[in-house]
Amino acid sequence: MRTASRGRDTSKWAAILLFLPPALLLFSIFVVLPAGEAGWYSAFNWNGFGRPTRWIGFDNYRFVFDNRAFGTAIANNLLVIVVSLVVQLPLALTLALILAERFRGAVALRMLFFLPYILAEIATGMIFSFVYDGNYGLLAAIYGWFGAEAPHLLASPATAMPAILVVIVWKYFGFHMMLFIAALQGMDRGVVEAARIDGATGWQLQRHVVIPLLHPTIRLSVFFAVVGSLQLFDLVMPLTRGGPADSSHTIVSFLYTFGVMRMRVGFGSAVGVILFVICATFAFTYKRWFMRDE
Amino acid sequence: MAITRRVLLTTAALTLPARFAAAETVVKWLHIEANPAQVKIWEEVARDFEAKNPGVKIEMSFLENEAYKAKAPTLLQSKDRPHIIYSWAGGVLKSQVEAGVLEDITNAVGDYKDRLSPAAVAAFTVDGHLYGLPHTVSQVGFMFNNELFAKAGVDGAKIATWDDLLEAVRKLKAASVTPIVVGGADKWPLHFYWTHLAVRIGGKAGFQAALKGENGGFEGPVFQRSGELFKQLVDMQPFQTGFLGFKNPDAVGYFGDGKASMILAISSFYHTQRALSASKNGIGDDKIGWFNFPTVPGGKGDPADTLGGMNGWLVTKGAPKEAVGFIKHFISEDVQKRLAAGNYIIPTYKGAESGLGSDFMRNIARNIAASKYHQNFYDQDLGPNVGRVVNDATAEIGGGTMTPKQAAKAIQDAYVQGN
Amino acid sequence: MSRIRLDGNLAFRTLFLLAAAIFVATPLLATVLGGFKTLGELRTNPFGLPHDWQWQNYTDILLSARYWTLLGNSLAIALLTVALTLITASMAAFVFAHLRFFGSDMLFAYITTGLLFPAATAILPLFIKVRDLGLLDSYFGIVLPQVAFGLAMSILLLRRFFRDLPPELLEAAVVDGCSYIGFFGHITLPLSRPILATVGTIVFVHSWNAYLVPLVMLNNDRLYPWPLGIMVYQGEYSSEWHLILAFITLTILPTVLLFVFAQKHIVAGLTAGAVKG
To answer: Which of A210-214, A288-292, B249-253, C44-48 is least confident?
Structure first.
């Protein structure tokens, strides 16, 4: 008995000591350490060569907040969130309610709507820079039918961001739709049937029975929309690179353009820390306030 | 099947030389020249060097101008960095020297440097040490299309002052000609306006005072005025539709296609506008014109002052010694004369400018020779960070999102903050 | 369901679906077809079928070394990332699922903090780290960070699945004298194929589409994965849209094929996986 238990102990510790270190090491070296170093580096004015030496305290944070383009980036990120909530979510929900039912072509349409989500952001951005191209694009052709000269949407500070928002909805609504469809299919049909027997029909049924049952999924969808918005980068690069005149930056494209491209390690790290604080604060408060039951 | 075989072959071709040709010295040369006609000559020069130096292989690679500037800071930190890189000298070069990624080539070059233009060599010298060799100089000014000017009744030869320029824009607009094309997405083509205005308004003394932080630095009256005059032009909407979305190559091609009457150009666009035009012919010698950047009444700058580049090649740390040999070969009398004859460059090799093949380029060479104050591009001269901010801020004036005052403040803030 | 009631609704629904389908499909179809046109036709007829199919646009790309190098790099990076993620994450998930020891909860919580932030937040220190390790311009300079940033999610998904396996299996195996490591290899892994496939697919798609990390870590264009390569291609061919569209089509083709064949895993992985994360 004792030997068996000792053997079991050895076996347990062998597994722990063999199985945990690779993941822990990788995670510590490439995730935790850089995150901590971002905090440290953000106190220096450093061009990345050698070791950081020019300590400037919190100045980098001041430089970040003084930068007009950073304000624009924050505003743009908020705009993306608003559009996700006001346009994308209702669109995804409506389509999910329709497509969760069985009829011919429903599955094919689901797949079509989901397809943009798996395309690379880079490819998507490029496809739409063609769509919006003032000389060759689809939009130019549509204007051409009416004999009008096409606007260069991506070349004007006033229209670049709205144009990007359309692409965001195009790319991501299918993902949210799939979330809802998965929830609808996993839903207790009994409740819905009972309501139907009670005389609830059509829109009433959706509004008062189905949608309330979807609330957890809606909260989840909002969560992903916000987190996704905070990471937005790949899509912006092929479309505008944050331009024209720095009007369409997101936090990450701002970080890349002003931090990485210029190798201002301290400044870029400060932006990273700010982004980290936003992400973490959001995740904690949202989970605490809105997703308590899950 | 055929495709698979091809893939295998090419993969093999890609990996083989690197692994098995250790006996060869490979010199990796990264350039940013987009004009195929010029690159072809460069390739011949490289092959020629290889023939004269058995066992040396020159490996050329290309990055587009903007992509290169974006990549350079990370590129230089890689152990796989190229041995020879392109440079505009100035503050960016200085910061690369400080970072310790360049090779001091003072001794390797020796007195060969005396054969080149002293001003250009000086630009590649930091604290008495030589880090690169210049192969060309250039001037910024207005390149125009005579035919379109004639349509609007504008005479390019008579545009001398800022008001003349504004008047010309007015006439061109009235004649439904797009007055100016600019690659606003790359930002630096817009920064030429602000900087050249500052060269005219403040002169050399104005710039040097700003460097020392006198007269309000880059926030002082000289630079505020530059921003205001630039804004005056911008407000007339002289640029092509969507100018903030055009990259510089697109803009140069647009001029080459004859779709706009002017471009505030680097003199080398004389040739690139052909390569980048749809027809590959561009605007011919019979139609192309040039006038120097207009003067500003009351400006302290000498009208002969110029804004322009001094471009050359740097050798990175750890490069084989053949790298210096190659740039010397590349900037030899023969090659310089050949490139000058083709009008690709204003050469730096003393005397090679006599071989320039067109009146247009000879005129540019004369302008530069006559200039006592040749201001390097601000975005290079002021160093990587400050230079970028000049581009950001001036592009924002162009886009109408910053006032001249805000722009000047942003630049001064960046300057105080340093690189 | 009463048919008559729905009919008024039906027209609206059909129209709505049709509009959404056109909105989604048009840019995609125009891209594929645009690749078959000449630049001139693209300008006059961007929507319709090509009058004269320019197969050459596509074959030129397919016969170029450039395209296959990009795809090969993307594939190598993605496969290495998937392999390393599955190995390290499944081992760690196994420990977290079955073995308790002092600090195990803390370590698990430690790993899950990885869900909190994207790689972008620490991209500059990450660059410095990769540089100091001498891994710039190498596959592993991209693979290792990608694996590290995907670990939290992968471990969560795998751990949940491992825990849901019948507990009698483990007890029986241990009584038979099987070690934990042996159990992991002989029982857990073979039974976990579906979840391994799902996690593998998510990781693959993420790596295949990734842009920021390769962009920062790579300078040598021989190592470029396709998202970097296509950006360079666009820079070079600036307004020759017919060629760019053909190139885009050929680079998204593998993703679309993967989607068609591994639909179940992708949808399950990307939606259900997200739900559980």
So the answer is: A288-292
How close A83 comes to chain C (CA, Å)? 17
Distance from CA of B9 to the nearest CA of C (A): 9
Reply yes or no on domain A61-290 having CATH 2.120.10.30.
no
Q: Are residues C77 and C213 in the same domain?
A: yes
On whether both C32 and C167 belong to a single domain, the answer is no
Give the pLDDT of residue B10.
45
A:171-200 residues touching chain B, CB 8 A cutoff = none
pLDDT digits (tens, 9 = 90+) for C144-178: 999 999 999 999 999 999 999 888 888 888 788 88
Check: CB of residue B87 under 8 Å from CB of residue B312. yes
Residues C28 and C148 in one domain: no
In this model, does residue C14 exceed pLDDT 70? yes
The answer for residues whose C-beta is within 8 angstroms of residue A64's C-beta and 6 or more apart is: A70, A267, A270, A271, A274
Q: Which of B385, B405, B409 to mutate to test the interface with A (most CBs of A within 10 A)?
A: B385
Given a cut of 60, whether residue C3 has pLDDT beyond it is no
CATH of the domain at C135: 1.10.3720.10
Domain residues for the domain of C145 are 64-276
Instruction: Give percent of chain A with pLDDT exceeding 90.
Output: 64
- The answer on C85 and C214 residing in a single domain is yes
Q: Which of residues 55-84 of A touch B (CB under 8 A)?
A: 59, 63, 66, 68-69
C50 and C146 part of one domain = no
ipTM: 0.91
CB pairs under 8 A between B and C: 52
If asked whether residues C224 and C183 sit together in one domain, one would say yes
* Cβ–Cβ below 8 Å for C68 and B71: no
Residue where one domain finishes, among candidates C57, C78, C98: C57
Q: Note whether C50 and C68 are same-domain residues.
A: no
The model's pTM is: 0.89
CATH second-level architecture of B25-137+310-369? 3-Layer(aba) Sandwich (3.40)
Burial code of B290-329, b = ≥16 C-beta within 10 A, e = fewer? bbbbbbbeebebbeebbbbbbbbbbbbeebeebbbbbbbb
Structural domain count, chain C:
2
Subunits next to B (3 or more Cβ pairs <8 Å) are: A, C
A-contacting residues of C 41-100, CB under 8 Å? 42-43, 46-47, 87-89, 91-92, 94-95, 99
**Per-residue model confidence as pLDDT tens digits over C122-149:** 999 999 999 999 999 999 999 999 999 9
Domain match, C79 and C50 both: no
CB < 8 Å & 24+ apart, contacts of C29-32: C30/A130, C30/A131, C30/A138, C31/A127, C31/A130, C31/C245, C31/C248, C31/C249, C32/C245, C32/C249
Cβ separation of A136 and C129 shorter than 8 Å? Answer: no
